[in-house]
């Protein structure tokens, strides 16, 4: 007769006839026959193989055993190194063990080992099932799974990665900020630029460049040698030579500026590049006088002769070139004899500094013949009612007719005009035109006409300026732009204009900051927001002031108001309260509304967020005896943009529920709960 193989818990009944086992199964897959005990599955929950990345990778090994817990002695997990630990039942027939934070080193064969309780006639009955667990390392750097900063390097490691900011940046690798190596307060990885170099910060690095007057790579810099200047000493100095003996010339090595002793002659320059050449005849103008046919050409050169490539030359209109003689330092001369109108044309003086290109000066000779105008008077200014006089000098060996014209009309002696003529020696005659009692139409050019020549002389009628068309526009909350037209400048340079402003047309007008101006527009500043102003303009020249023009009324723009005042709560109930506040002390324009934000103090959850026109706001749907933060912001609107104040905020607390109300709430909440039977169970799945 064979022994029964039923479990020994007393839950099984052995059929003596055939040895079969009958029992009350505690779960559907359960058996009470040890001969049929099996481990159906032993595997990790989730996908396999396991990817080891930077997160905590716990693996739940789950073993399904088809025997009740009361019939088992133990369920263990055996590790690859043959150590073992007990598994935990998570539901009938299901046992689990969590491998915490696994890495590739944890790969290997794991065994679920279940042991059944023995019966008196046999030993311990056990079964095993294995699973070969593979854990692969994830290279977060290669798979772009890291969160390293763009200016950091990612280094893969077992089960994770590390981030390190690259050179030139500082931070934890996830956040990297550029190091300003050039900043004087820099304390780590700072620049190595020379003291005579400029450090320029770049993203992740810096550059060094020697300052002007030095050469080198920026880390080492040497001062320019004599005769050199500029960046990297690339430029040649062009200073004049020093006086014999004293070293009185210095070339500034940063920019090549030359310093020297200029007392040698008037007009001397220290810089060869500043060479100037000026040519004039003496006398000037040149008159075609009988028996007087010589002129002296005078060429002024502003360099010392030791700095010039001599000789200084003069070129005649026919192309002939002649050397000039130095009469004194800076002055070169040549006499030209027998000058006639046939010698008219361009004369050129040429001088060259040592090592430099030649520089020239020109004069266009026009030998005046009998009846040519020598000169006219400079422009003459006069005010309305004044008497002014202009003149015209004519080369004349005999009496010549000299006439005056204004517009197309010849001027004659009368009460308005007086013409006089007189001789100036043997070869010159001068005509004077006197204009009495000036009026606006007398302004202009008066033409002197001689035998073979005409020239104009100016009479400038100077008057007070006239202005018009004052326009005002708002620029900002504290600025207005004012513009005006100068319809008549008084025939003088631009007048000086004064701008004043006032909040009333008849009140005290204040001078605008930055006034007076010579422009035709001005920004009036330091005004009050959303305030109406009058602006007036008056312009002045040396004759007098214009009329005062008053611009129209213009308002400045709105700006941000100050914060709402005296925030308070009223009608505080368990589920609501009403908040109220006062208008800001500085509205800076009509308040366009208020923004109200209510959050629960405990977790910051937004309860209410709204925009209102008034100065109160009901807050409903609250929880009893709970603190709430109320924030109120005032705002103006200008140009479609909200201009918000600083926030005003306070914490308010709802009241407690009354005892009767609290009881009703508990009852209502209890009645709303679903009723659970004693058969209901909830299985919680073990997660990572």
Describe the structure.
This protein is mostly beta strands and 688 residues long. Among the domains are: 25-137, Immunoglobulin-like (Sandwich), CATH 2.60.40; 287-365, Immunoglobulin-like; 373-461, Immunoglobulins (Immunoglobulin-like, Sandwich); 466-554, Immunoglobulins (Immunoglobulin-like); 565-660, Immunoglobulin-like (Sandwich). Strands 34-41-40-36-37 form a five-stranded mixed sheet, with no helix packed on it. A hairpin with a 2-residue loop joins strand 55 (627-638) and strand 56 (641-644). The longest helix is centred in the last third of the chain and has 14 residues, at 659-672. The model is unreliable at 662-688 (pLDDT under 50).
Terminal CA distance reads 52 Å
The largest β sheet comes out as: 5 strands, mixed
Residue-averaged pLDDT: 87
CATH class of the domain at 25-137: Mainly Beta
Fraction in helix = under 10%
CATH third-tier fold name of the domain at 25-137: Immunoglobulin-like
The chain-level structural class is mainly beta
Number of helices: 1
- What gyration radius follows from the Cα positions, in whole Å? 53 Å
* Oligomeric status: single chain
Anisotropy-based shape: elongated
């Amino acid at each position: 007769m064979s022994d029964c193989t039923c479990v020994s818990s007393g839950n099984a009944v052995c059929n003596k006839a055939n040895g079969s086992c009958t029992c009350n199964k505690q779960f559907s897959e359960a058996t009470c026959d040890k001969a049929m005990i099996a481990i159906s599955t032993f595997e990790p929950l989730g996908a396999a193989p396991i990817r080891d990345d930077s997160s905590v990778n716990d693996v739940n090994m789950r073993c399904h055993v088809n025997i009740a817990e009361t019939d088992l002695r133990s369920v263990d997990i055996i590790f690859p190194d043959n150590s073992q630990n007990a598994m935990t039942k998570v539901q009938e027939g299901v046992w689990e063990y969590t491998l915490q934070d696994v890495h590739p080193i944890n790969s290997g064969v794991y065994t679920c080992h279940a042991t059944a309780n023995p019966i008196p006639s046999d030993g311990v009955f056990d079964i095993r099932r294995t699973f070969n667990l593979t854990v692969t390392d994830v290279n977060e750097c290669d798979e772009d799974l890291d969160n390293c900063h763009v200016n950091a390097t990612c280094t893969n490691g077992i089960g994770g990665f590390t981030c390190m900011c690259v050179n030139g940046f500082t931070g934890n690798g996830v956040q990297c900020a550029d190091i300003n190596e050039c900043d004087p307060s820099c304390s780590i990885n700072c620049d190595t630029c020379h003291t005579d170099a400029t450090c320029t910060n770049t993203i992740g690095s810096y550059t060094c460049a020697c300052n002007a007057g030095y050469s080198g790579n920026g880390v080492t810099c040497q001062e320019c040698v004599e005769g050199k200047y500029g960046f990297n000493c690339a430029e040649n100095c062009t200073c004049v030579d020093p006086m014999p003996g004293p070293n009185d010339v210095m070339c500034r090595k940063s920019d090549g500026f030359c310093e020297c002793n200029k007392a040698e002659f008037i007009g001397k320059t220290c810089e060869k590049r500043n060479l100037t050449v000026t040519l004039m005849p003496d006398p000037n103008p040149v008159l075609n006088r009988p028996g007087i046919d010589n002129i002296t050409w005078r060429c002024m050169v502003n360099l010392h002769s030791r700095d010039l490539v001599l000789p200084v030359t003069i070129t005649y209109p026919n192309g002939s070139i002649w050397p000039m003689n130095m009469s004194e330092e800076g002055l070169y001369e040549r006499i030209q004899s027998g000058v006639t109108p046939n010698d008219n044309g361009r004369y050129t003086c040429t001088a060259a500094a040592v090592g430099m290109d030649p520089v020239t000066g020109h004069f266009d000779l026009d030998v005046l013949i009998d009846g040519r105008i020598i000169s006219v008077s400079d422009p003459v200014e006069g005010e309305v009612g004044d008497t002014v006089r202009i003149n015209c000098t004519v080369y004349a060996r005999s009496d010549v007719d000299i006439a005056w014209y204004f517009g197309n009309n010849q001027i004659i002696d009368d009460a308005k005009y007086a013409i006089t003529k007189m001789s100036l020696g043997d070869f010159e005659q001068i005509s004077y035109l006197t204009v009495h009692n000036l009026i606006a139409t007398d302004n202009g050019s008066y033409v002197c006409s001689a035998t073979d020549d005409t020239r104009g002389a100016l009479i400038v009628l100077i008057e007070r300026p006239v202005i018009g068309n004052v326009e005002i526009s708002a620029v900002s909350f504290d600025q207005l732009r004012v513009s005006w037209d100068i319809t008549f400048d008084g025939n003088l340079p631009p007048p000086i204009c004064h701008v004043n402003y006032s909040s009333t047309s008849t009140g005290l007008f204040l001078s605008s900051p930055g006034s007076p101006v010579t422009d035709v527009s001005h920004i009036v500043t330091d005004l009050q927001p959303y305030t109406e102003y009058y602006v007036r303009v008056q312009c002045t020249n040396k004759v007098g002031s214009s009329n005062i023009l008053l611009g129209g009324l213009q308002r400045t723009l709105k700006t941000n108001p100050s914060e709402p005042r005296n925030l308070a709560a009223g009608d505080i109930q368990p589920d609501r309260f009403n908040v109220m506040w006062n208008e800001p002390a500085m509205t800076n324009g009509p308040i366009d509304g208020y923004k109200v934000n209510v959050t629960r103090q405990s977790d910051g959850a937004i309860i209410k967020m709204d925009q209102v026109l008034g100065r109160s706001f009901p807050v409903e749907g609250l929880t009893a005896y709970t603190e709430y933060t109320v924030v109120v912001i005032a705002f103006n609107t200008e140009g479609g943009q909200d201009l918000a104040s600083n926030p005003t905020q306070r914490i308010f607390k709802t009241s407690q529920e009354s005892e009767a109300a609290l009881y009703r709430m508990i009852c209502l909440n209890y009645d709303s709960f679903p009723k659970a039977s004693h058969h209901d169970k909830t299985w919680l799945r073990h997660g990572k």
